[in-house]
Structure formats: C-alpha cells, structure tokens
Design brief:
about 0% strand, globular
Length: about 325
C-alpha cells in the first residue's frame, strides 16, 4: 500500500476518534459545570481542559476569559484550532475523500453526510444546545465506525484504520481520566469537605462528578455491572486503566494494537512491537494500588509519553514523513 493511502486511512480514523473524544471531554466538563461548586474551581476545570489538550496558548489568542461559553466555542467551532470538533470532522472527511477507492461507498456516504449535516448545525450554532450537539457528534462517529466494521474487508486498509483509532482512543481516555482526577484535587484544595479520594466524604458531590466521567466514556452501566456499589475514584481508575474487557480502557487499547502491528510487519516494525510489548508488560504487572502509590497523574503522564512515542514510531515506519495531527 502507498504511504499516502495509508496516511489518509490512519488520519481519517484518528480525526474521527478525536472528534468523538473531544465531544466526550467537553460533555463531562459541561455536565459537571452545571453542579454547585466554587467559581474558582469552575474556571480551573475549563482551564485544565485546555492545558491537557495543549491548547491554552491558542485559546488565549482568541479569547480573553476562560469560561464555559468561550471554551465550548473554541473546542467545537473554532476552525483555527486543529483539534476542534469542526476541524476534526473536516479533516476526517477530506482524508476519506482522498481514498474513497479504499473504503466502501457506505463508509464514504456516512462521513460525507456527517459533514453536510454539520453545515446546517453551524448555521444555527448560537441556538444549539451543547449537550445535544455533543451527543450528535458521538452518535455520528459511532455510526461511521460501525459502517466500517460492517462493510470493509479485513485487510491492510482496515488495519491502518484500527491502529489510528486505538492510538487516539488510548491517548484520549488517559487525558479524560487525568482531567477529572486533577479537577477533584483542585476542588479539595478549595473545599476539603467537597471531595475525597476514598469515597468516605463528600459522597454526593463525588458521585455526580465521577458518574459524569463514566458516562463520558460510555462506562457508567459497565461500572455498575462490575462493582455494584458506590462510585469511587480508585475503582473508576481501575476500570479505565486495567479492565481488559472495557473497550476504552488503556490495557484494552494496547492489547488490541499488538496483533494489528503483527499483521502489518515490515523491516521497521520491530521497534513498534518492542515498545508495545514493554507497555503491555508494565500494565499487566501493575495494579491500581501501585498506580495510586506512584500518583495517578504521574502514571498517566508516563503512559501518554509512551503511547505517543509509539504513534511517532508508527508514523515513521508506515506513513508520509513529517505527517502532523
């Protein structure tokens, strides 16, 4: 397969997954921002979302005040922001257009229809309900991925799509978890009675914040099936990091990447397999108590560094040189 074709397949998948995960991050922040809380914490929660996405400087070049309305506008509609939902859906559609011959007509029509429907939404953007819009984005990304799974050959093109999806998903699940956990730490500084690490205090406040996080990754019902008790930070982290059956967990993404790379072996893939093997081993031989002893934030930072290094190695081995997100 030509590197240009592989590049478009890979980034089509990554941009689609990024649009969905940006919608998920915004949705959890939007939902929790509606809960009673100190104004200082509310501002910090939106600022942290920009910091985690490395977009704070770009945001401040467009807006003077960090608040819900400005961040939602910047992260959903701002075309100068390459990670905004509009920019991601446009980039996904353009990559799909370039390689229409490598995907099915149903997949192309789904991607194209999403873009056309988005144009109608943009015309009435000031009347749009953020929650409904973000749900629509998630639904359209689900639909596109479902069409791909239901209509495409399980060949090299399909493998590149899946690698892009899983690398982006692992990155974003880690960022969503880090964002929420740091929000709770910030809140404890402002009001120690509001939140607790072990679930023994501030249960009412904790429940709605952690439940919002679980819903943002479609995991609330899964959490209830597995734990059948109150929502606690440690169990949420365990589900999203170590549960091999949870589709968006870090370990599930890594485990699914390994056989895909094995199917795509070339002379440069050995380093990718080595890095993935080391990352899998570090997850397999760790547990949630060790993660919390180390510090969840530090653990996630290390994971993000390693998964993004794997993504860079994959780009160097298979894709167009210097391809950027």
């Amino acid at each position: 397969m030509l590197s240009r074709t592989a590049d478009c397949l890979y980034w089509m998948a990554r941009y689609t997954e990024r649009a969905e995960n940006t919608a998920r991050m915004l949705d959890v922040n939007h939902q929790t921002s509606l809960l009673p809380q100190p104004s200082e914490f509310l501002e910090q929660s939106w600022k942290k979302l920009l910091t985690i996405s490395k977009l704070e400087e770009a945001f401040l070049s467009k807006h003077d005040v960090v608040n819900r309305e400005n961040v939602l506008d910047f992260m959903i509609y701002e075309t100068s922001n390459p990670s905004s939902i509009v920019s991601c859906l446009y980039a996904a559609r353009e990559n799909a257009r370039v390689i229409r011959g490598k995907i099915t007509s149903e997949a192309w029509e789904t991607q194209n229809t999403t873009w056309l429907e988005l144009q109608r939404i943009l015309e009435a953007r000031h009347q749009a309900d953020p929650s409904r819009l973000l749900e629509w984005v998630k639904h359209r990304c689900h639909l596109f991925r479902g069409v791909l799974y239901g209509t495409m050959l399980k060949n090299e093109a399909f493998y590149f799509i899946n690698v892009g999806t899983l690398l982006e998903r692992a990155d974003n699940t880690a960022r969503i978890l880090e964002t929420k956990y740091e929000h709770q730490d910030a809140l404890k500084v402002l009001d120690p009675n509001k939140a607790s690490d072990d679930g023994t205090g501030g249960e009412f406040f904790d429940f709605y914040h952690w439940a919002a996080l679980l819903r943002s990754v479609s995991a609330f019902e899964i959490y209830r099936q597995i734990y059948s008790d109150q929502v606690t930070p440690k169990q949420v982290a365990q589900l999203l990091i170590f549960n091999k059956q949870m589709p968006r967990s870090l370990v599930c993404c890594v485990n699914e990447l390994i056989p895909l790379i094995s199917e795509m072996k070339n002379q440069q893939s050995k380093e990718i397999e080595r890095l993935l093997g080391k990352l899998k081993a570090s997850l397999d031989y760790s547990d949630i108590d060790e993660v919390f002893d180390q510090g969840l934030e530090e653990f996630i930072e290390v994971f993000l560094e390693r998964i993004n290094h794997i993504a860079d190695e994959f780009s160097n081995a298979y894709l167009i040189p210097l391809a950027v997100a």
